[in-house]
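note to self: dont lose this again. the chain is below, predicted strucutre after it. 272 aa total, dont forget to put it in the shared folder this time
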Amino acid sequence: MPRAMYRAVTNFFRYWMSVKKSDYTVKSAKKKVLVVAHRGASGYEPENTFASFDLAVGQGADMLELDVHLTKDDVAVVIHDDTLERTTGQTGKVRNRSLSEIRSLNAAARKANHSFEPIPTLEEVVDEYYDKVGLMVEIKYGSSFYKGIEQKVISILERFDVVDSCEIISFDFDCIRRVRAIREDISTGIIFVGKISEFTQLAKGVGCMALHPSYEYVTVEDVAQVRETANLEIYSWTVNDLEEIRHQCEVVRPDGIVTDYPDIVLREVRKL
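---
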């Protein structure tokens, strides 16, 4: 099958099966809860690595959540911290290392007896997974720290024609404003710790489509009110405790659950 035709078929299937956008799901009284793999299946494999992402896809995650920083030579790389110590065992900041230097570091250095895992570029991750799973890209710091990062991330998504199946999220609300200024049709969300009611109007003012609160602040009442009055999606993070996973799935029922253990959450979702 020619690549263009394959992409067309894949995109149509993704659209038809999309829980977030399909009419039958929105109208359903029991909307499916999306399983979002936090830095991949990071409860089992080193976070933000191909090993972690591969496992999450294999376990059936609906989306991969990943984090982006820029290198010294302005390449978007997938790593959570702006420093290297916690995951690679090396010192210094991502911003002060070139891509070639970053590539030489082991993202699994803190995982005993694990094979070498490179720090991937965003382009490599999108290329590998765009036709397998949705992508939730967290920009850790916007242009106030990484000048032009919003455009760089969007350009990569555009290159692979996956703008309609990805979401850009950030704690940096100005970053989300810039994303919206560049492409209004990209799904966006703000991340925060606090009561949903305190961030709903801010989210609408920024122009984003989703709220990403820490799970401790997500209540049944909040979810109902936001769906009724604000038309925003809610993604609870980071839900790893089995009892809390069950509570989120059975009682709270947000639009998505962000977790280090996508297989466990998926098992609970399927029970519904």
